């Protein structure tokens, strides 16, 4: 699991080409909602990490950042769950590890 938000990211076209399951987490290191969600994200990821390798991209978002805009991200954290280059599920400000685990099951199932 990625621990820090990356300022630079892949392009949307590059992400759409990834065929393996991927989770994109949009947020910011100073965002209170993002910090509050981290234990839930870590809990869900640790459950799946023993079975599957999770490709996790933690992307710093904000005004003028094209990747977040391409996904129409409005609130942080937003988790996008992709499989075969397609969005399968999206969680905005997840509040439990269970809802994150349920979304992970969709891309690994």
Number of domains: 1
**Helices and strands, in N-to-C order?**
HEHEHEEH
Give start-end ranges of low-pLDDT stretches.
none
Could you tell me the CATH topology label. Glutaredoxin
Rg (CA only): 13 Å
Top CATH class: Alpha Beta
Number of helices: 4
Coarse shape: globular
Total beta strands: 4
Quaternary state of this entry equals single chain
Compute the separation of the termini in Å. Answer: 19 Å
Percent of residues in helices: 25-40%
Biggest sheet features: 4 strands, mixed
Quote the beta fraction.
15-25%
| The CATH H-level homologous superfamily | Glutaredoxin
Summarize this entry quickly.
With 109 residues, this protein is α+β, with helices and mostly antiparallel strands.
Main attributes?
109 residues, alpha+beta
What does this structure look like?
By secondary structure, the protein is α+β, with helices and mostly antiparallel strands. The chain has one domain (12-108): Glutaredoxin (3-Layer(aba) Sandwich), CATH 3.40.30. The chain is 37% helix and 23% strand. The protein is built from four helices and four strands. A four-stranded mixed β-sheet has the order 2-1-3-4, with helices on one face. Helix 2 (32-49) links the parallel strand 1 (22-27) and strand 2. Helix 2 crosses helix 4. The longest helix is centred in the middle third of the chain and has 18 residues, at 32-49. The chain starts with 11 loop residues before the first helix and ends with a helix. The model has no long low-confidence stretch (mean pLDDT 92).
């Amino acid at each position: 699991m990625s621990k820090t938000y990356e300022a630079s990211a892949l392009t949307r076209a590059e992400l759409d080409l990834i065929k393996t399951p991927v989770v994109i987490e949009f947020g910011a290191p100073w965002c209170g909602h993002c910090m509050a969600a981290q234990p839930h994200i870590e809990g869900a990821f640790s459950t799946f990490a023993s079975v599957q390798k999770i490709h996790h991209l933690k992307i710093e978002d904000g005004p003028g950042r094209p990747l977040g805009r391409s996904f129409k991200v409005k609130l942080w954290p937003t988790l996008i769950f992709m499989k075969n280059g397609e969005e399968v599920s999206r969680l905005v400000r997840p509040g439990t590890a269970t809802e994150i685990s349920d979304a992970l099951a969709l891309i690994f199932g």
